[in-house]
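Materials and Methods. Structural model of DUF177 domain-containing protein. The 187-residue sequence of DUF177 domain-containing protein from Lichenibacterium minor was retrieved and submitted for structure prediction as follows.
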Amino acid sequence: MTRSIPPSGPLSRRFDAASARDTATSFALDTTPAERDALARDCDLPGIDALSAAFRIRREGADGLHVTGTVSARVRQVCVVSLDEFASDVSEPVDVRFAPEAEVEELAAARAARPGGDDEDLEDLPDPIVNGRVDLGSLAAEILVLGLDPYPRKPGVAFADPAPEPAEEPEASPFAALKALKGPETA
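The predicted structure was written out as tokens:
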């Protein structure tokens, strides 16, 4: 018995892993205004005017998938300098491998059991195929979020350092005050 999994976010497009072939299958993802509005709220953006993805999906190994393509969007962000809203384009490449959940868990356990070493030389673990499906909508949303500039700046706006304050007269030292009280030195 397969359990039904609710959508994991405002954008969900399920792809049946069993339908993948050895040759690439094209999958175009277009979004509705309601999906874009919900995703913009989740991402704390003023808006997402357009969001689409073009994926190529092919079988990898016996049960795995390899998804490549591009996620493209037109988003509205708030400039961190001027606080003005502005539109910007996002175009991010996609190159993600998927494997059955059990296989991903085995790989993660093997990695955890590995004696201390540098994980930087290790390849990323594949994403899991859950109940024989992958959610390409969630993948597109994730790639979009990762492609957003965390400190968006409106084109033409530059941060200007505040004007330096005028230099103050150096404070007289206590010894200078004592010298003034003593009077002129005689030889």
